[in-house]
């Protein structure tokens, strides 16, 4: 089924396509900055949750120079690999190196990994900290893997039913999945879809094909139901999908 048909049928997403990755980063950073500024004006503070991995580095660099009241913004992660910031796989390290620079260095950062704590302890403490924020998040930016996972909602995660449960009262949970590489912490589906603005940032033909497959399987009920579809399906507003080749 064509993407346009699926979008019109399900109204679960808007497709935003760009000629190249630089143009995407400029457009998405501008959109995020406008939304964060509006939140600061409206309620004196703004909450942003970003994903890690490899895709968002360029976006973070552009976003870090947006002229907004960064000292009123709290930044956290959608999900984190349970590794210290010294690891090249640390999402906190990526955010520190690429986003919390320049103007954005004034933002408050809430990391999810905690030195000296077990995964379960960090999940419980992080859950308390996130629940104490003035939720909902104003902006949440998701990524997606080639297996259709988003956040740390891996298809083989032991905790997947709870992570995707719209009634889950937890904000943050531990995740164990063989395909994930290491244990993780992730925001749960209800906290993600409650965001004022929810975007999925994907790049390249392979990810576009994965996205199309996930939406098509979801609409037809055929083939594996992929976690990214569960998120789009649960979102009360169309998810803004940002794609460039
Ligand atoms: O920590 C992570 O891995 C993520 O937050 C994850 O959900 C990511 O967004 C996708 O796996 C895409 O990763 P890439 O951008 O590296 O393809």
From TrEMBL:
It catalyses: 6-phospho-D-glucono-1,5-lactone + H2O = 6-phospho-D-gluconate + H(+). This is 6-phosphogluconolactonase. Hydrolysis of 6-phosphogluconolactone to 6-phosphogluconate. Belongs to the glucosamine/galactosamine-6-phosphate isomerase family. 6-phosphogluconolactonase subfamily. The keyword Hydrolase applies. Residues 20-233 form the Glucosamine/galactosamine-6-phosphate isomerase domain. Pathway: Carbohydrate degradation; pentose phosphate pathway; D-ribulose 5-phosphate from D-glucose 6-phosphate (oxidative stage): step 2/3. One of its GO terms (molecular function) is 6-phosphogluconolactonase activity. It comes from the Bacteria. PANTHER family: 6-PHOSPHOGLUCONOLACTONASE. The lineage of its organism: Bacteria, Pseudomonadati, Pseudomonadota, Alphaproteobacteria, Hyphomicrobiales. Its EC number is 3.1.1.31. It comes from Ollibium composti. InterPro entries: 6-phosphogluconolactonase_DevB (IPR005900), 6PGL (IPR039104), Glc/Gal-6P_isomerase (IPR006148), NagB/RpiA_transferase-like (IPR037171). Pfam families: Glucosamine_iso. Keywords: Hydrolase.
């Amino acid at each position: 089924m064509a993407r346009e048909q699926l979008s019109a049928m399900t109204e679960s997403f808007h497709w935003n396509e760009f000629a190249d990755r630089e143009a995407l980063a400029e457009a998405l950073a501008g959109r995020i900055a406008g939304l964060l500024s509006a939140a600061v004006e409206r309620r004196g503070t703004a909450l942003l949750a970003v994903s890690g991995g490899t895709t968002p580095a360029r976006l973070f660099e552009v976003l870090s120079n947006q002229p907004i009241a960064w000292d009123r913004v709290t930044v956290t992660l959608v999900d984190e690999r349970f590794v210290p910031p010294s690891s090249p796989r640390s999402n906190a390290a990526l955010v520190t190196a690429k986003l919390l620079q320049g103007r954005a260095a004034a933002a408050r950062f809430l990391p999810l990994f905690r030195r000296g704590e077990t995964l379960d302890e960090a999940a419980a403490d992080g859950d308390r900290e996130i629940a104490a924020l003035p939720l909902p998040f104003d902006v949440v930016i998701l990524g997606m893997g080639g297996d259709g996972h988003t956040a740390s909602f891996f298809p083989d995660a032991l905790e997947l039913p709870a992570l995707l449960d719209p009634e889950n009262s937890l904000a943050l949970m531990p995740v164990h999945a063989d395909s994930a590489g290491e244990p993780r912490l992730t925001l749960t589906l209800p906290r993600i879809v409650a965001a004022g603005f929810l975007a999925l940032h994907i790049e390249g033909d392979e990810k576009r094909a994965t996205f199309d497959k996930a939406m098509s399987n979801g609409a037809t009920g055929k083939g594996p139901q992929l976690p990214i579809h569960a998120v789009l399906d649960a979102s009360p507003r169309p998810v803004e999908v940002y794609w460039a080749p």
